[in-house]
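Many introductory courses stop at the sequence. We go one step further.
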Amino acid sequence: MWISESFLKKNRSKFGQMAHCVLVGAGGTVVLLLFLLTFLHPCEVINFVPWILGFNSALAGYMLFNRPGEPIGHKHGTSIAIGMIHILISYLVLTSLFLHLIGEQVFNKWDLLYFLFIGAACSELGAMLAIKYLKLS
């Protein structure tokens, strides 16, 4: 995650903030999944994927508004877009990872739609939590 932190320090623009959130969310998904793969079989880890994606989408949405830099407009649309971009990147990484580990594709297009819904909803909830927290501070 130090790569995304150094990227954010150099680039505090809106794009830099959004890219940082997506990188941290996708990186967190991969790290958490690899942690679970150390002591569970890959077929058992598949059951945890929606929970992992939801948690990291909420984290990405929260980080989007809990960062210094330019204020981001269109809060709802931006947080939903961040969640969906995070899911798309994570979906590609997870699909290739499970294809390498198991030898078959475990996710289909309906799973992608389900994951996109989870990502949009959880990212929006994380962003709402950050906005409420900043109003209290």
